[in-house]
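TICKET #2291
ISSUE: user wants both folds in one file
ATTACHMENT 1:
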Amino acid sequence: MTTDATLTSKGQTTIPKEIRESLGLKAGDRMTFTLMPDRTVVMRIKNKSITQLAGLLHKKGRKAVSVDQLSR
């Protein structure tokens, strides 16, 4: 998907609606921008908090594993 945007005199731009909808972005979501050596800019969405990740890897019936066991 390719769309155009314009940079304002204040250095601001609007992420096009199609992109926002495709990424599920909403007001208040955070993102990071990384400038690559070839001048490509990579934008990463940071809309999940660490608390939303709790239990993500849990599967019913699976035994808990300690951090020490994971490090082996």
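ATTACHMENT 2:
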Amino acid sequence: MFMKKVVKYLIILIVIFMFPILVSAHPGRTDSKGCHTCRTNCESWGLSYGQYHCHNGSGSSRNSKSYNTTKKTTTTRRVYGCTDSNAINYNSSANMSDGSCNYEKIETVSEKIYYNTEIKGELTSGKKEVIREGKDGKKEITIKKIVDEDGNIISSEKINETITEEPVNEIIEYHITTKKVKTKEKEVKKESNNAPLIVTIILLILNAFYGYKNKDANMIINKIKSVNSHGKYILYFLYFIFVIPVFIDIILVIIDLFKKSEQS
């Protein structure tokens, strides 16, 4: 019993004396795995400052810096395309716009429908007569356009056309009687222009006849007859050309007839 007590006390003394040495050489508490991080006298143990190591052999020594968690950087792959959901070529997989979006536009425009001219009959000349006035019509055209992001037209397609007002054709007729009418008008004008000449000739004949029957009548034509020279032909010419002497003789004839009626 005595020896056991002696051995027990010796072990206690050894532990008491060795504990300060262990603490001064390699302090630090261990975790559940028997490991800890070296903070003091690390080089004497062949360790570096801050190195995590184990004393029971259950783990391998490693630097505590390795515990720093490296953040994983996730790089998103760029997919170029049209990112506007209103576009006709929208790409749901695209995350970067490349300016390729196309848009559909529907436009309605109004256009004039020009009337045609119909010629009644087979004539194309003469007096023109408009039987019916022409009138333009209207139509509405629906157009589908594809434009880019800047508004430039890529394609254009007419998808519908509606006539809102029918045109009314003009009807023209040419009359063949136009030339005849003009010819008759010219003939009438010519006849009217010749009327003074005809009247003058008639009056001249009457004057000559009255003067021949009444040689003593005071008339210009009788005085011309009394001239014996060839100059009387010139006087006849002037008598007819100037016309006034013819009308003067008519007045003289009327006066002479009036005197004779009074005497009788």
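RESOLUTION: both attachments delivered.
EXTRA DETAIL ON ATTACHMENT 2: Confidence is low (pLDDT under 50) at residues 21-25, 58-70.
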